[in-house]
Specification:
Blueprint lengths: L2 H13 L3 H8 L5 H23 L9 H22 L5 H8 L2 H11 L8 H18 L7 H24 L5 H22 L8 H29 L1 H4 L2 H17 L5 H18 L16
Helix pairs in contact: 1-10, 1-12, 2-5, 2-10, 3-4, 3-9, 3-10, 4-8, 4-9, 5-8, 5-12, 6-8, 6-13, 7-13
Length: 295
């Protein structure tokens, strides 16, 4: 990896690792629909001017259904699931569960006839990842299991979105794709956001979290990902999927004082190892678009 590629990789690891932290801070004061709307609207305002500069939108007419599906599974559904889940569980736990996304993608690709067979390596990885999720979810059986399931469902959404992107949107300009999806997410959540608009002005910490989520963790992060893929290629860039959750855990524990037990660390290790084993060693080369599934 070049020095520039390493710099992009480190920056993106942080940008896609801290969303769970800032979401946790924001949902303490604003509603989930308002947060998702603000994130999408701010991200669109920042990214769209660049999208218009680099190309047109003529492809939309022939890609409407995949575009809607990608928007639904990459932004509209998972963002609200993650935000609502983090109202009740730690941001570090959310980051750990999202690390399961690559393994879920392998399973869904196989079910849809687009993936490779399950050899011993892949099967072992999937088993380890599933066991890690069970370990992580076990302490929540007393009441928070539903919110753990919400985060896992967000991982499923990200996996479906990556498959849609790789099969039907791999020839689409990524900046335009992201910008249009951000607009779509903002439109969907505009009315729910108005209905749940904060009665009192949020604190400076909540406002800063919302701005950081929209500007840095969404618009800048997507742009940084494009640069990373161009510099090091999609296969190396997708490794970010395993690093960003570790940043999420470190941020939640270090900055929010969230608990981190030995059992949680073991569960996280199972999830990461399982995801790595189930996605490594194959012949399939993911497209740049298909790897955008981590925040």
């Amino acid at each position: 990896m070049t020095r520039r590629g390493l710099m992009y990789f480190v920056l993106l690891s942080v940008l896609w690792g801290v969303p769970y932290l800032v979401i946790k801070v924001a949902v303490a004061e604003v509603s989930v629909p308002f947060l998702v709307f603000a994130r999408a609207a701010i991200g669109a305002l920042v990214l769209l001017p660049f999208a218009f500069l680099v190309g047109g939108f003529g492809w939309v007419r022939t890609k409407r259904l995949p575009l809607v599906g990608f928007c639904l599974t990459e932004m509209i559904a998972p963002w609200v699931l993650i935000a609502h889940g983090e109202v009740h569980i730690d941001s570090s736990t959310a980051g750990m569960l999202i690390a399961l996304t690559p393994a879920i993608t392998v399973v869904l690709s196989k079910l849809l006839g687009a993936g490779e067979g399950f050899d011993i390596r892949r099967s072992s990885g999937l088993s380890l990842g599933f066991f890690g999720v069970c370990l992580l979810a076990a302490p929540t059986l007393g009441g928070d299991l539903l919110y753990v399931i919400e985060i896992v469902l967000a991982s499923v959404c990200y996996a479906i979105g990556s498959i849609i992107a790789s099969r039907w949107l791999n020839d689409v300009p990524v900046a335009q794709l992201t910008g249009l999806c951000l607009i779509g997410a903002a439109v969907v959540y505009a009315w729910p956001a108005i209905q749940t608009w904060p009665v009192l002005p949020p604190s400076n910490a909540a406002i800063a979290s919302i701005l950081a989520l929209g500007v840095f963790c969404t618009a800048l992060a997507f742009a940084m990902f494009f640069l990373l893929v161009r510099e090091v290629g999609p296969q190396r860039a997708v490794v970010i999927t395993y690093v960003a959750p570790a940043i999420a855990v470190a941020a939640g524990v270090g900055l929010l004082g969230e608990p981190l037990s030995g059992g949680t660390l073991v569960a996280f290790a199972f999830i990461l190892c399982g995801s790595w084993l189930s996605t490594s060693g194959g012949r399939t080369k993911p497209s740049p678009t298909s790897a955008v599934t981590t925040n």
